[in-house]
Amino acid sequence: MQLLPGFRDFYPEDCALRNYTLSVWREVASRYGFLEYDGPVLESIDLYKKKSGGELVGQLFDFVDKGERHVALRPEMTPTLARMVAARERDYKKPLKWFCAPSFFRYEKQQRGRLREFLQLNCDILGDPSPAADAELLALLIDILRGFGLGAGDFVIRLSDRDAWMQFAMGRGVAQERVLDFLGVVDKLERMPEPESRRKLGEFGIELEAVRAFIADPSAEAAKLQGILADLKARGLEEYVAVDLTIVRGLAYYTGLVFEVFDRGGKERALAGGGRYDALLEVMSDGKVRMPALGFGMGDVVLGNMLEEVPAAKARRDAWIAARRAAEVYVIVAEEARRPEALGLVQRLREAGLRTDFALSAAKVGKQFQAAEGLGAQYAVVVGAEWPQVKVKELATREERTLPAEGLAALLKG
Ligand code: HAM
User: Fold this and answer.
1) 226: CB partners within 8 A, 6+ apart
2) What's 326-413's CATH class?
3) pLDDT digits (tens, 9 = 90+) for 142-158
4) Domain edges within the chain
5) Rounded to the nearest 10 degrees, how much is the dihedral formed by the CA atoms of 27, 30, 32, 37?
6) Peptide linkage before 195 cis (omega within 30 of 0)
7) For ligand 1, atom 14, which residue shows the shortest CA distance?
8) Average pLDDT for residues 131-144, to the nearest whole number?
9) Does residue 162 register a pLDDT over 80?
10) How confident is the model at residue 134 (pLDDT cuts 50, 70, 90)?
């Protein structure tokens, strides 16, 4: 029985990596005042057909359920979030700052940085149309990556504006209903061979040179994004962003600011992407709720590749994992006759909140010390002839003391 392509088993070492990612995501998001929410794994396929659009619709894991509903595993969060907020908009003070970090499913070709099930952090601000909200979200994005030990030399956020591209297309005669298809072509230009780019743009009556000239001069866009850039500068975060019109984003609902994060080496696929979707709630609520919104999604796959490649980030990650895995105390049963006392002590140490381990069956004392070292334990506590005293050895310094077993938990805890 083989694992399905694009899916992962999580052995304990993989879970440790995943827990680290989730812990940094949650810690930084909550430092910025974002609240965690979640939605269902399964949604009606219409939600994505109507709201996500673009290539995502071809990547859905969909099926007809036993009640004849055509459903899909969620490929992204934004349509669900828009539905949830539109339904209970009055219950929350604006702006809403919400995040979630569950699993998503896309039937993509498995490749470096892309799987069929992945985790994705979503951070969104709803109810604030200002550049201050844009900058706040970008600052969060930057601080999350910095929280992993990545710096300005490792990644860059490329900022762009969907509006500018729409005007570009419509100014050159692309019909309104075909603008999204045109944007889909621009979104892929960097990954497409030149003859194919020319042919695809030709279908819209646009020359590759015109697109290249537009991308080559982002000064007008930089002026429009000035408010965001000044805000980030005031926070000392300007070196993490660059205006770059190659970004248009593949999803249908974006309306203005769009951005993607890339590794500076240009080796990886996008690490995160997002933007404004100021019209989505209105569409979702049949015109009842109008609320500006923006957000981003960051997957765990490209991020994981980067943490592996950047030594400082890898060291930070490995130290976090090692600190949580290590036993604090290892109780050594030096005389089997004392096992009941040892078990009582293990129990008290654990109740005191100390990560405590011991050998489940009789073993030579030397072997038990080896096990303690192997678990990276701080203390070995030897239960033997000295009972009700025990020998406490600090494994790093080899310092040994004989102490009463009574009250040991409190002592070690202190
Ligand atoms: P997206 O660009 O489709 O945006 O995905 C965002 C990030 O999710 C990507 O940059 C990548 O890190 C990760 N990702 C996407 N697909 C895969 C995959 N097959 N395997 C591994 N990682 C993947 C969205 O999903 C938007 N809903 C984000 C958003 C939130 N916009 C506003 N709010």
Assistant:
1) none
2) alpha beta
3) 999 999 999 999 999 99
4) 12-319, 326-413
5) 130
6) no
7) 299
8) 98
9) yes
10) very high
Tell me the C-alpha distance between 246 and 161, whole Å: 10
How far from each other are the two terminal CA atoms of the chain, in whole angstroms?
Answer: 50
Centre of ligand 1 to C-alpha 273, Å, is 6
The model's pTM = 0.94
- Is the separation of the CB atoms in 331 and 371 below 8 Å? no
Largest CA distance in the chain: 92
More confident site: 221 or 158? 158
Using the atom order of ligand 1, give the atom closest to the CA of residue 81. Answer: 33
d(CA 195, CA 297): 32
The confidence score (pLDDT) of residue 1 equals: 86
For the CA of 114, the closest atom of ligand 1 is 20
Calpha distance 390→379 (Å, rounded): 12
Over residues 72-97, the mean pLDDT reads: 97
- Any idea which fold 12-319 has? BirA Bifunctional Protein; domain 2 (3.30.930)
Task: Tell me how far the alpha carbon of residue 78 lies from the centroid of ligand 1, in angstroms.
Answer: 10
